[in-house]
Amino acid sequence: MPSSVLADVRLLTESFDAGAELARFTAAQVEAGGIASFLGQVRAGGGVEALELRHYGPLTLPGMEALAAEAQRRWTLEGLLMIHRSGEMVPGDPIVLVAAAARHRRDAFAAAEFAMDHLKSESWFWKREKVGGQWSWIEPRPVDFEDKRRWDAAG
Amino acid sequence: MAKLVFLGRLEDVAGGAEREVPGGPLAGVLVTLESDLAAALSADRIRLALNGTLVSDRNAIVLGDGDELAFLPPVSGG
């Protein structure tokens, strides 16, 4: 990826319009042959009334920016979009949007998946859910670490 | 005074997101806290960041005036 192409990395404390963000990102990627995107949203079910993500200012956004730089180093990208929410959300709200634009689809798919696997397992977020009016913290899942580990050998 | 910051479930243990404490070596600071909080902060899987930088050797930490020490439990993002 040419160094002139910057990643758009944002940590938001208010809700965002994922469709509009993706449309704007896509419109700017005239050199890309494909764009792979992932949208994570708050799941309904299990009696979940709300979900809250907390972050730590000095670490969270710098960590996301380092992750974006690593994805840009590993794959040939035309553009990279990474938006992550912090704060309180309700079912249906977008949590995370990742989009990778590349000349060829393999780079786009791989970079988007790499970014998601690392956002889930390594980024500085802590999550809690409200069920029946009671908040409880969510522990990381072993599968999130396994998903991330797949990339460790791929250098 | 230095500031301790508690992330994730540690906030519940501490009863607040932050706490002002007198400076000094970390071990000396921890013994002034409630024993359940000190134990939670001392767990192996809790990582520490001093003024925004991760610290690998917690025994080397000496808090000075204005320092911010964050206690970071395992993350659960996305």
Residue stretches of chain A low in confidence (pLDDT < 50, at least 5 long) are: none
Which structural category fits the helices and strands of chain A? alpha+beta
Name of the CATH architecture of chain B: Roll
Strand line-up across the major sheet of chain A: 1-4-6-2
Assess the beta-strand content of chain A as a share of residues: 25-35%
Shape, per Cα inertia axes of chain A:
globular
Notes on the protein architecture:
The complex is a heterodimer of chains A (155) and B (78). Chain A is of the alpha+beta class. Chain A has a domain at 8-40 and 57-123: Molybdopterin biosynthesis MoaE subunit (Aldehyde Oxidoreductase, domain 3, Alpha-Beta Complex), CATH 3.90.1170. Chain A has 4 helices and 8 strands, in the order βαββαβββαββα. In chain A, the strands form 2 sheets. Chain A has a 4-stranded mixed beta sheet with strand order 1-4-6-2, sandwiched between helices. Chain A has a 4-stranded antiparallel beta sheet with strand order 5-3-7-8. In chain A, a hairpin with a 2-residue loop joins strand 7 (125-131) and strand 8 (134-137). The longest helix of chain A is centred in the middle third of the chain and has 18 residues, at 57-74. Chain B has 78 residues and is of the alpha+beta class. Chain B has one domain: Beta-grasp domain (Ubiquitin-like (UB roll)), CATH 3.10.20. Chain B contains 3 helices and 7 strands, in the order E-H-E-E-H-H-E-E-E-E. Chain B has a 5-stranded mixed beta sheet. In chain B, strands 3-6 form a two-stranded antiparallel ribbon. The longest helix of chain B has 8 residues, at 35-42. Chain B starts with a strand and ends in a 6-residue tail after the last strand. The mean pLDDT of chain B is 95. The A-B interface holds A 40, 53-54, 56, 58-59, 84, 95-96, 116, 119-128, 137-141, 144 and B 5, 7-9, 12, 49, 51-52, 54, 68, 70, 72-78.
